[in-house]
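Quick one: structure for this chain?
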Amino acid sequence: MQLVELLPHVARLVPIADRYFASKQAGERANQAALAAMAEGVQADLGQVTKAHAGLYRKMQEQEAQIAEMRDEVRQARTAMEQRVETLERRLAAASRWIKVGVSLNVVLLLIIVGLLLRK
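Got it. Here's what it folds into:
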């Protein structure tokens, strides 16, 4: 008996509950769609970042190769310069010896000339 009395009230509540659940389900679908759109956006951004990093990585490898070439050139230049410095040092030492010998001979010859001039 009581169920028969509540039946008209329940009949009015069913459409309200149906609308509530439908709106809730629509909200969840909207949230899912928004999350899916955000996920696609993030994936697109990650793709762009990956492409940018690939370009940077390629540039970095090219620069590493250039740096290696420059390092070899600097080593070769340093070796050549060290050899030139050694050659110049040897020549300077030889020139210094010749100057010492020349000055000594000049002093001896000067003394001989002075001695010969003083004898006469």
